[in-house]
Design brief:
Layout (H helix, E strand, L loop, with lengths): L4 E3 L3 H7 L4 E3 L7 E4 L9 E6 L5 E6 L20 E3 L7 H9 L1 E6 L1 E6 L6 E6 L5 E11 L5 E10 L3 H4 L5 E2 L1 E2 L4 H6 L3 H12 L5 E5 L26 E2 L14
Parallel strand pairs: 2-5, 6-11
Antiparallel strand pairs: 1-3, 1-8, 4-5, 7-10, 8-9, 9-14, 10-11, 10-13, 11-12, 14-15
Length: about 250
């Protein structure tokens, strides 16, 4: 799974990289180093969606998908910040978003954790600090107060051999040639298969990073630093990774 990620890009670079035509942001956004899942307000992150007019729009969404028809208290939500690619077409929670509400989640890296509880080692994955996108599913939920709330989940998939040395899942990264189809194609299963195929060839790098990244309350660039006990050697070349997220504080 993917429960911590980083988006340290500037808004202008994100707009350019994803050919964004519209900004639908209700507050300022700034680069964020330790994005943590939350169904509560105040920590929304950027997602790219396609409007009914076919334009690409940049919105803010909560990193925990809330189904559009959800009527119960939010604390009753299932864990819904990661969506397994194998379940998208058949599980009720994901089926409708997969069919018609897909999004791109801008990112510059993500972290996975390995080890015993309380002693987990953080591993930071990136593509030479290049901006990229996770495959995402999104939903617009209407709160009891009548507020329209955008939410999203990151799609995960089977790991490459190198990814499996860290965890048994990895986030699905969409390559630029699949952006248009992921956002708007009418045959999502084909797009999913092609996106998974091409993602496995991406030359990601990984290094053990500062364990402070395991703390969902911490926000700052320190999460990108190498672990104090790690020698400054060249990062390992990999493909794509994923992991079990650290315990999330619900808000």
């Amino acid at each position: 799974m993917c429960g911590r990620y980083t988006n340290e890009a500037e808004l202008s670079d994100i707009k350019l990289a994803f050919d964004v035509e519209q900004l639908e942001l209700y507050r300022d956004w700034k680069p964020t180093y330790n994005v943590t899942p939350s169904y509560g307000p105040g920590v929304e992150q950027l997602i790219v969606v396609q409007t009914k007019e076919g334009k690409r729009s940049l919105r803010l969404g909560r990193f925990w998908l809330i189904p559009a028809n959800w009527k119960q208290p939010l604390k009753e939500l299932p864990t819904a910040f990661n969506a397994r690619s194998e379940e998208l077409a058949r599980r009720g929670l994901w089926k409708k978003p997969f069919e018609s509400h897909r999004c791109l989640v801008p990112a510059t890296g993500w972290r996975e954790f390995r080890g015993e509880a309380g002693k987990k080692h953080a591993h930071h994955f990136h593509l030479a600090r290049t901006l990229f996108a996770f495959a995402g599913l999104c939903s617009t939920w209407i709160s009891p107060d009548g507020e329209a709330v955008d939410t999203f989940a990151i799609v995960t998939t089977e790991p490459t051999p190198l990814a499996a040395s860290v965890h048994d899942r990895m986030p699905l990264v969409v390559t630029p040639e699949h952006y248009a189809d992921w956002l708007g194609a009418s045959d999502p299963e084909r797009v999913l298969a092609e996106a998974k195929r091409d993602a496995f060839a991406l030359p990601f790098e990984v290094y053990e990073s500062d364990p402070i990244g395991n703390n969902g309350r911490y926000e700052g660039p320190r999460v990108l630093e190498r672990a104090p006990s790690t020698a400054p050697s060249a990062p390992a070349q990999g493909e794509l990774f994923g992991a079990k997220p650290a315990k999330t504080e619900r808000s």
